[in-house]
Specification:
The protein has 5 helices and 5 strands. The chain is of the alpha+beta class. The chain folds into 2 domains: 85 residues, no CATH class; 40 residues. The strands form 2 sheets. The protein has a 3-stranded antiparallel β-sheet with strand order 1-5-2. Strands 3-4 form a two-stranded antiparallel sheet. Strand 3 and strand 4 form a beta hairpin.
Length: 152
Amino acid sequence: MPYARLSEQVQKLSNPQRSDTFVKQFRNAVRDGEVDAAEVPGRFTLPKEFKKRGSDETSRKEVKEMVFEVTPAFEAWFERVDAELATAPTRGSGKPKVTVENIEAGAVDFKALAEETRRKMQASFEKGQALGNARKAGAAKAKPKRGARSKK
């Protein structure tokens, strides 16, 4: 049976930005017994670039190298997982950021945005009104102050 390295298989992914998820799924498959693999000394760098919040810097992640047996069952598993990763939505790729430029360019629907804002503001207003009315009702039933004597 031919053997392959995990680093070589990661290079075959159709979407390299999903390499971290692939490695997690691969390790889960090894743990569950779907794939036979063994850890070998060494590490390799994933092709995915991680963006750091609040800056334009990117970083890369290193993971442990593994060797596995290339079987028809593994090939079927890899094809299935690669297809899932290629079609699965990624975080942040859903809709464009709300900016004046995107609104002017038509990338963001202004009418829908305005309606959403109106709903949020109305819900916030109603919540405040309900809170105020609850306090008013609570004040009407004011408890006697501590230490005040009641007439008997």
